[in-house]
Specification:
This protein is 0% helix and 52% strand. It is built from no helices and eleven strands. Strands 2, 4, 5, 6, 9, 10 and 11 form a seven-stranded mixed sheet that branches. A four-stranded antiparallel sheet has the order 1-3-8-7, with no helix packed on it. The model has no long low-confidence stretch (mean pLDDT 94).
Length: 125
């Protein structure tokens, strides 16, 4: 089992930046691929970004490409999401998730076995 805890959410103005962290505890962090998803009120859960267990492959949802960057530090058991050029449409609860799946499956929610509780990101105009 692995436990995930997101942090770094908050209120930011449009055009600003925010950095989210996903800290893991439990078994060895490096065996998991990690994904970020977001859920806005009244909308379906949306894939944001994912990174495989080694950090060698990353994936991004179309709505955040060029603005968000996912990275990981396995020594710190943490995955990060750098969010730049934020727009109001980015407002959502952001959750991280851990997966045993191969890299090619990390964009699929069903690939993730463990989920954090989420952190609120609000972007004001």
């Amino acid at each position: 089992q692995v436990q995930l805890a997101e942090s770094g959410g908050g209120l930011v103005q449009a055009g600003g930046s925010l950095w989210l962290s996903c800290a893991a505890s439990g078994r060895t962090f490096s065996v998991y691929g990690i994904g970020w998803f977001r859920r806005a009120p009244g909308k379906e859960r949306e894939f944001v970004a994912a990174i495989n267990k080694s950090g060698g492959s990353t994936y991004y949802g179309d709505s955040v490409k060029g603005r968000f960057t996912i990275s990981r530090d396995n020594a710190k058991n943490t995955v990060y999401l750098q969010m730049n050029s934020l727009i109001p449409e980015d407002t959502a609860v952001y959750s991280c998730a851990a997966s045993y799946a191969p890299s090619l499956s990390l964009v699929v929610p069903a690939a993730y076995a463990f989920w954090g509780q989420g952190t609120q990101v609000t972007v004001s105009s």
